Amino acid sequence: MKNITAPFDKETVRSLHAGDTVRITGTIYTARDAAHKRICEAIAAGTPLPFDLAGAVIYYVGPTPPRPGQVIGAAGPTTSGRMDAYAPTLMAEGLSGMIGKGERLPSVIEAMKAHTAVYLAATGGAGALLSHCIKQSEVIAYEDLGTEAVRRLYVEDFPATVVIDCYGENLYRTAPEKYRR
Amino acid sequence: MREISVDLIRDAVAALAVKANTVVDARVEEALKTARQREESPVGREILDQLLQNAEIARATATPICQDTGLAVVFVRVGQDVHLTGGSLEDAVNQGVAKGYTDGYLRKSVVRDPLDRINTKDNTPAIIHYEIVPGDELTITVAPKGIGSENMSRLYMLKPSQGAEGIRQAVLQTVREAGSNACPPLVIGVGVGGNFEKCALLAKRALLRPLGEPSPDPAWAAMERDLLNAVNDLGIGPQGLGGRVTALGLAIETYPTHIGGLPVAVNINCHVARHETVSL
C-alpha cells in the first residue's frame, strides 16, 4: 500500500507500477465525455482551461446529487474508454493521472509512456464508499452539464489500484492470466 | 373487476426506484461474502470487501449503491380484471420515476435524443414492458440498469447447428469483451430462443430471477452451472484485476424459436443486479 499525493509530480508517476494499491490524498478534478470534449475544444482554440492540467489528476465520475449535509452523492468511476479519444490531447498538456475503470486504447497507453502519466482504477459499484473519501467538492466549470460538470474535489485516502503505469505495463492484461483455468 | 388508481402506481414506482438504488439485495450480499471466501487474489478480496462496505454505507446513509442509478426499466404485469382509474398508466409510471429520481437524490442519466443528447432532467422516460395476465393483481418491478454493463451486452443470431457449444461461446466471448468495463463480479442474464427482440427481453428478464435460483428445467439449470464455472475460469476477477470470481450468478431464460434460428442474448449486469417488486 502506497500513500500518494495529488496532483502527481513526474517522480510520483514513475514510482507507481501496475498492481500497486494506493491511497490518494489531495486535489483531483472530475470530467466525463462532455467535459473532455469542451476541454479539447478549448485547447484547440487556445482559450482558458477550467483548471491547470500540469500534474493534474482527472477522475472519470458523474456523481449523484448530494443529500442535504452531504459533500457529494455516490461517486464511483465510470468507464474510461469513452474518454480515450480525448485523453492523449490532455496528457500532451500535462495531465499526469487518470482514475476510472476499464481498458484503454493502445493510443492512450502510448501517450502515457510519452508524457509520463498513470492510469488507476477505483472500484466500480462502490460509489457510496468512495463518496466518503471526498471531503470537498465544488463545481468549477461547465455547470450546465449537470452531473458531467467539472468539479474540483479534495480527497483523503481514496483507494485505487495502478492498472497501467507509465512504462506501459497493464494489469488488465497480466493479472487474469494468473487465475485462468 | 378491481379498480386501482394510477396514483398508487406512481407512488409505488417512486418508492421502488429509491429502494432498488440504495439497498443491496440480501442474496447479493450473501453471494459477495461467499465470493470473498473463495477469491484467491488479494486485490480481488480487497475489492469484494469494498463492495460489502459499500452496501452497508449505502443502506445506512440512503446513498445510492452506484452513481449510475441507471435507466429506469419498469416491468408492469396487469391482471386482465384490473380497471385503472385516474389517468394514464404510462404517465403514472413516468411520474413515479421522476418523483423517485428527484426526491431520492438519484442521478438523472436520460438524454431526450440519442444525438442531440439534451438531458431530460428527471430520468424519464422509463423503459416500460407491459404484460397482461389473468387475475386482478397489478405487479410492478423497477430494475434500474446502468450503462457500463449494458454497453457490454450482446445479441447473437446463431445457426441451429451451433447448438449448446454456440451458446457457450457466445456467453464467454461477451464476458471476455466486457472485461473490466462492466464492473465484475457480474450477474449475467442469458436469453435463448424467440426472435431478435424476444431474445433480448428474455435476457433482461433472466436478471430479475432471484440470484442463485436455478432454472426449473434441469437441462438448462445444468447449463447455467456449467457456464457460470466457465465464466469464473476466465480469471477476469473482481474489477477485471484478476481472480477466481468473475460472476456471482448466471440465469438463462428460454422460449420456442424458429426452425432456422438460434438467437442468444447476453445481458451483462454488475454485482447488484438492482430490481425491486411490489404487487398492488
Walk me through this protein's architecture.
The complex is a heterodimer of chains A (181) and B (280). Chain A is an alpha/beta fold. Chain A has helices at 10-15, 33-45, 87-92, 106-115, 127-131, 171-179; strands at 2-6, 21-30, 57-59, 97-100, 118-121, 134-141, 150-164. In chain A, α2 (33-45) links the parallel β2 (21-30) and β3. The longest helix of chain A has 13 residues, at 33-45. Chain A is globular. Chain B is an alpha/beta fold. Chain B folds into two domains: 2-20 and 65-145, no CATH class; 148-278, 60s Ribosomal Protein L30, Chain: A, CATH 3.30.1330. Helix content of chain B is 40%, strand content 25%. Chain B has helices at 6-22, 26-38, 42-61, 89-103, 147-150, 163-178, 196-206, 218-232; strands at residues 2-5, 71-79, 82-85, 127-133, 138-145, 154-158, 186-194, 247-257, 262-269, 276-279. Chain B has a four-stranded mixed β-sheet. The chains are: A alpha/beta (181), B alpha/beta (280). Chains A and B meet through α5, β7 and α6 of A and α3 of B.
Describe, in short, the structure shown.
The complex is a heterodimer of chains A (about 180) and B (about 280). By secondary structure, chain A is α/β, with parallel strands linked by helices. Helices cover about 25% and strands about 25% of the residues of chain A.
Question: Low-confidence segments of chain A, ≥5 residues, pLDDT <50?
Answer: none
Run of helices and strands of chain B:
EHHHEEHEEHEHEHHEEE
Largest sheet of chain A: 5 strands, mixed, barrel
- Tally of separate domains of chain A: 1
pLDDT averaged over residues of chain B: 97
Largest sheet of chain B: 4 strands, mixed
Strand order in the sheet with the most strands of chain A: 2-3-4-5-7
Q: How many discrete domains of chain B? A: 2
Overall shape of chain A: it is globular
Name the average pLDDT of chain A.
97
DSSP strand count of chain B = 10
Percent of residues in helices of chain B comes to 25-40%
The CATH topology of the largest domain in chain B: 60s Ribosomal Protein L30, Chain: A
Question: Which CATH architecture of chain A?
Answer: Alpha-Beta Barrel
How many H/I helices of chain B? 8
Radius of gyration of chain A: 15 Å
